[in-house]
Amino acid sequence: MNKIRKRVRAPRAPAPWRVQRKHAGVYTVVDRNGIGVISSHQVAQSNAWLIAAAPDLLAACKAAADLLGDMDSETTGDVYAQLLRAIDFAEIQNDPQ
Questions:
Q1: 31: nearest Cα among 3, 57, 46, 51
Q2: Rg (CA), the chain
Q3: Using alpha carbons only, what angle is made at residue 12 by residues 10 and 17, rounded to the nearest 5 degrees?
Q4: How far from each other are the two terminal CA atoms of the chain, in whole angstroms?
Q5: Helix (H) or strand (E) holding 57
Q6: 83-95 burial, b if ≥16 CB within 10 A, otherwise e?
Q7: Model confidence pTM above 0.70
Q8: Pairing status of strand 6-9 against strand 26-30
Q9: Residues 55, 45: contact at Cβ < 8 Å?
Q10: Torsion sign, CA atoms 11, 13, 15, 17
Q11: Is the CB of residue 87 less than 8 Å from the CB of residue 61?
Q12: What is the pLDDT of residues 19-63, one digit of tens each?
């Protein structure tokens, strides 16, 4: 029997996010209030910048999906479906319960 997964919106820290270098090898991504979103020795500098850009990237994906949604699938190809999957993945968290 397949288990139905409940889809729940994950809470988000307020954008914009930015990167702060705490000390050698440690980068912290903080929200607009300066509260840490993620901090780790394992978060490389390039990953920290990508994580910090996440809210803006999600907004850009939504804007692009809105534009592509009005076009026919022959014009958009698989790009529209890719955007919708990325948005869904970013906004929805599967509850293992």
A1: 51
A2: 17
A3: 150
A4: 15
A5: helix 45-69
A6: beeeeeebeeeee
A7: no
A8: unpaired
A9: no
A10: negative
A11: yes
A12: 887 777 777 888 888 888 876 665 566 677 888 888 899 999 999
